[in-house]
Amino acid sequence: MATDASPTYRTPPEFHHPDIPEVSVSHDGLRFWQYMVAGSIAGSVEHMAMFPVDTLKTRMQVLGGSNCLPQSFGVRQAFGSILKLEGPAGLYRGIGAMGLGAGPAHAVYFSVYELCKELFSRGDPNNSAAHAISGVFATVASDAVLTPMDMVKQRLQLESSPYRGVGDCIKRVMMEEGIGAFYASYRTTVIMNAPFTAVYFAAYEAAKKALMEVSPESASDERLVVHATAGAAAGGLAAALTTPLDVVKTQLQCQGVCGCHIYSNSSIGNVVKTILKRDGYRGMMRGWMPRMLFHAPAAAISWSTYEASKSFFLRFNHHQLT
Predict the structure, then answer these.
(1) What are the pLDDT digits (tens) for 243-276?
(2) Is 14 helix (H, G, I), strand (E, B) or coil?
């Protein structure tokens, strides 16, 4: 998920209006529901656009613990195998589950992030620590919304998946494994996303500052380009560094399906130990390439969409007050 560190922290004078309470407008002129809508749009566009790459990542990460995938480790081999055996539609299995989860999860993510950023930054737009802490709060909240649908999505992405669709998967998991199966990977997901957020913000702030210094006179005119470029660089780096935990998450979500290994418990240590014994250290990095190929452009898409949506609402609010 991409996050925002917009430098505009004060409500523009033109947005002040005697008939609208000040509490309804946040630090950069948007209301709470507008953050939610902008975030929902950004998250949905991001995940829908990059879904085929996410399918490749999932297939590669379960390879070591499954008998249902061809023994190919590369992105090209995995991509060719899916097209040959399933056609282009195979790249989009489970997209319905992500469609149901991405919008609400990103609405929660961006709105919680913006509120926490305003609270922790204390008026300092360059407070990187406040951005990082806000991102962690946002991650914990949004992962609680997204994790169940992410689990459904990943099970549907598997080749020879036994589920007919989103509804069938939800029903069968509830009956056969219980509601706890939907959150088996929640702890791992949060633990993974916390360092992801920290790395992402550190890299994003550094990249954004460097880009702004290259051409400071045109920084405002090229704001979307700066955000997209910095976000892509940060997203790719953070994705690569947190791949081992993402492998653990995928293994937990897909266990017992299509021949995937079933773990005695959902502890991270147990899964890591099993993967290392079975596949070695290489198994912990499986899928790092498609993960990077997903997060780099996904961050750029999400940034651009989110900032464009915020600009639309700023103009909308201004139009209402004039």
Answers:
(1) 999 999 998 888 888 777 888 887 889 999 999 9
(2) helix
Taking residues 99-113, report their average pLDDT: 90
Q: Yes or no: say if 24 and 31 are a contact pair by the CB < 8 Å rule.
A: yes
Angle between helix 288-321 and helix 223-241 axes, rounded to 10 deg: 150
* Residues sharing a CB contact under 8 Å with residue 189, sequence separation 6 or more, in sequence order: 143, 147, 150, 249
Q: Per-residue pLDDT for 33 more than 80?
A: yes
- Angle of helix 128-157 relative to helix 95-121, nearest 10 degrees? 170
- CA nearest to 102, candidates 41, 53, 54: 41
Q: Are 61 and 247 within 8 A, CB to CB?
A: yes
140 contacts 116 by C-beta, under 8 angstroms: no
**How far apart are alpha carbons 149 and 141 in whole angstroms?**
14
- Residue 225 in tokens: 């380009």
- Cα–Cα distance, 265 to 307 (Å, whole number): 42
List pLDDT tens digits, range 284-316.
998 899 999 899 998 888 878 888 898 899 888
Contact 227, 208 (CB under 8 A): yes
Quote the tokens at residue 280.
């070695």
From residue 89, alpha-carbon distances to 56, 69, 86 in Å are 13, 17, 7
Alpha-carbon separation of residue 300 from 25, 198, 214, 236, 291 (angstroms): 27, 18, 19, 10, 14
Distance CA 195, CA 199 (A): 6
CA distance 17 to 194: 39
8 Å CB contact between 3 and 197 = yes
Task: Give the mean pLDDT of 190-203.
Answer: 80
d(CA 261, CA 249): 13
Q: What is the pTM of this model?
A: 0.75
